Automatic annotation (TrEMBL):
Residues 16-369 form the Enoyl reductase (ER) domain. This is Alcohol dehydrogenase 1-like. The keyword Oxidoreductase applies. It comes from the Eukaryota. Its cofactor is Zn(2+). GO terms for molecular function: alcohol dehydrogenase (NAD+) activity; S-(hydroxymethyl)glutathione dehydrogenase [NAD(P)+] activity; zinc ion binding. GO terms for biological process: formaldehyde catabolic process. GO terms for cellular component: cytosol. Pfam families: ADH_N, ADH_zinc_N. InterPro entries: ADH-like_C, ADH-like_N, ADH_Zn_CS, ER, GroES-like_sf, NAD(P)-bd_dom_sf. The keyword Oxidoreductase applies. Keywords: Metal-binding, NAD, Oxidoreductase, Zinc. Transmembrane segments: none annotated.
Amino acid sequence: HTSCGVIKCKAAVAWEPNKPLVIEDVEVAPPQANEVRIKIVATGMCHTDLYILFESMKKESFPMILGHEAAGIIESVGPGVTEFQPGDKVIPLFISQCRECRFCKSPKTNQCEKGWIETQHVLKDSRFTCKGKKIEQFAGTSTFSQYTVVNQMAVAKIDPSAPLDKVCLIGCGICTGYGAAVNTAKVEPGSTCAVFGLGAVGLAAVMGCKAAGAKKIFAVDINPEKFEKAKVFGATDFVNPKDYDKPISQVLAEMTNGGVDYSLECVGNVEVMRSALESCVKGWGISVVVGWTELHDVATRPVQLIAGRTWKGSMFGGFKGKDGVPEMVKAYLGKKLLVDEFITHNMTLDQVNDAIELMKHGKCIRTVLNPFPQ
């Protein structure tokens, strides 16, 4: 099935860093070889979208369409696509799974050699144009648009009964946090965990720790309003670093007889990464870096590691997208995974700048945007 040419539709374009997004009419070219064109039914606003817009601000990445946490329906497929057909419900993936490279063939990682990350956030050859200008595609997905074109190796086909306005969150935040606990840290039953940062990713990490059988889960955040929500996902104890005049790592060590077995940093702040590592017990403590930043170096004293702690990183929770995402959707449909509880706001794509403001000021967990309001 080949598609019927260019689609004109609405998208939120980031013309330059640090400025509001602008709803524009864009042209979305038909999918080329091994690509699919997806009608985006729902897309979440993730902190990484804000990071690109307000923090990393690489001038050469703009203009671009942000968004990478979404769900939709295949509209058309390009030549050579056999895995998908129009009408399939899918989740686009910002980490591809080509199934052929040495990383895809290894059970040890979800990195893929063909991923967009090799190209520094943007696919140079995007299918978007606006006002005669080529618009960069963010993370190989660009979901703040009514339609997008994605390589078939970066798309997961999901259960047709899944509600897209919910499971879109499985495309980033939920897998990222949950998998960091279950796949990367490999949290063990009866263990003690600490999760730093209680945004969507942190709450998903709390849920992962609980699913893995942790008996004590410390939720660490400087915003005490987040604690009630963390309880819903399984947190047992709450620590606000601002309540103490000593380092949080010391506070946790005193509460846990020497430190937690597992800690997860879900903020993207190098100071917090250090605190998370140093909150782990010596001998076997494992700390996972989940939050994204490239702006600063991370540091600690060598003795922290010499004493037997392990420092690891996790991207997309270690899930291989095509394999893991459909399974997570099934877990949700089987009531084994909380998803709806992350959604605090529903808005239209037109309200994207309001959604950005909510997240900037910590007033939401997840806002789901609808590009096609009735």
